[in-house]
Write the structure tokens for this entry.
Amino acid sequence: MRIIRASRVLTGRPGETITDGEVLIDGSRIVSVGPRGSAGEAAAAAEVLDLPGHTVLPGLVDAHVHLGFDDKVDPVTRRSPESDAHLLLRMAENARKLVSAGVTTARDLGARDFLDLELRDAIEEGLAVGPHIVAATRPITITGGHCWYMGGEADDEAAIRRVARENLRAGADCLKVMASGGQMTPGAPPSWVPQYGTEQLRAVVEEAASRGKGVAAHAHAHAAIRGSVEAGVTTIEHCTFFTPSGHRYDPELVELVAASGTYVCPTVHGAFHRVRKVHGQEMLDAWLAGVASMREAGVRQIAGTDAGFAVGDVANRTDGYVGGLEVFAMAGYGNAEIIELATVLAADACGVGEVAGSLDPGKRADIIAVAGNPLERLSDLRNLALVLVSGRSVGQAGVETVTSSVG
């Protein structure tokens, strides 16, 4: 057993701080959480790690990543210049980068050839270093639609159900559906064009529910957002309210989202400032204002970076997680709120809230410790002193790499 003691322990629940606290761990699980000395007689047999001046909190959750995103697929030959073997190695490196940022759970929302399942299982076996992965495998999309090259093309309800069942049979932890087009797939419908209607989206939800799984819907267009809510998806990804003329916030639609309780992952990322500088501030500022307005309307938002894509020459790196949290602060969120949406809320939205996201007895020992106090300075989340994934120390501070997060 092991005891971690620190100046403060944040359980992940809003406003719950234990001053001079400790967490008792037995193997991969948390045994107790409380003030110093609360572990009682068990402390006598435990290894003690004392971290004065530090904060212990739940491992961070990135609810939207692409560890193996590849935007270089030839639309004619339908082939990528990157082999599966090479891509899997890059995915493993990206997983290591996530851990280096304190992320202990990540939901991978799109990968080809079920490589995300291979990586997920390798990490759980201890063969690779990374966070727990919640894998969606192949996104369900129309023929030639957004991210078609990942292998999940389906145009009618029968095909949609077939692809969903194939993904689930392979071991998917959740399903991903492209409810609208996107900007990253040449020749595909643009982001403001819906790809599926409500009934088709409901077919995805039904197939996932038959296995006790959730659905993440990529939705930029107004109609796609509405259809996703009506179909009963678990999370709406992006939720940007895009039109051919740019971002157009819809208060009535936001009220519908808020009333439904559907989680929204606005994919707030650390590349925000660089993208804003290179590609213009008007659209990015309107988008961020929309994030702030959704907060005010009561929409449940969670942290997810969409790491793995690049806009022009600006890459969204997988180790830039904390930068995304700082953009939430720009949208008006307080630090305690941000930590909640990055831990307990994100874990719940990803379907792993019973085992992760907060420091509670019986949950996985997914824990980080940072020098300083992130309730006062979010940037202190970069000062990692300890990263545990199911009780295993996997800290990667100081490890340099030259490979890009993007294919």
